[in-house]
Amino acid sequence: MGRHTLEYPKTKTNTVRRKSDRANYALEAIHSLINSSPLLNVAFNTPDNDSPFPTILPMIGHMGSFDRPSADLGDPLDLYLHGYVSSRMMNLARSSSSSSSSSSSSSQDKEQEQEQGLPVCISASHVDALILATSPFNHSYNYRSATLFGHATLVTDDAEKLYAMELITNGVVPDRWRTSRQPPTPAEMQSTSILRVSFSSGSAKFRDGGVHDDRHDLEDADAQGKVWTGVLPVFSRIGEPIPTEYNKVETPANVTDFVREYNKQNEEYVLAAAKK
């Protein structure tokens, strides 16, 4: 019997309304997109700020589960984000955690505490192609986008903090944590804070395929004789490694393999999506 595909429940917060046929609520699809994004947009409100605008920060993070390290992308996961210990977001999360602790009973579990953390919205997106139609109103992108809604709390357990640091580092380049200088110094540990984001809902939206022209444009011989239509694939690529002036080590296999596989997989996906 096949594995059941888990999805985030549809709510008024995460339900896709415009072009709902492009929506995807599967945990695996959403978590994969988050983990493949070099930067995540993290939005939160600052209640002590006189500005009416929300704050949006580019941050580095990775999905995982400290309690269940073997969990895959199709399972419920947390997002770990790292930042400077005294940054505004870390201070807000610290305050939210302190407020939760003081107002919670000792019997509350971690999930209940996380729901009282700092509310955040996480988004990520990839552009895979530029779609050029006969009319500018039918131009589009091939894209992958995801949005998650949850609550952020500060990680205080040292073992979980190290787990998250390794997870995030290896999310940049596989096996980079082990192949870099270890262990972290006390100063490095003290200057870095980790947030754990537990999600209550999320959704993704994908557009693939080619040009979708209106029938009247397809039947317009004059327009078809003047306007170029087609798809411009957009590839995200990593270039050849450039060592530092003081480097004395050959480029390790985990780096060269990662560059090759990243470029290969990205190009294959983009070209396949354009042909759907």
UniProtKB/TrEMBL annotation:
Residues 92-117 are annotated as: Disordered. Residues 95-107 have a biased composition (Low complexity). PANTHER family: 5-NITROIMIDAZOLE ANTIBIOTICS RESISTANCE PROTEIN, NIMA-FAMILY-RELATED PROTEIN-RELATED, FLAVIN-NUCLEOTIDE-BINDING PROTEIN. This is Flavin-nucleotide-binding protein.
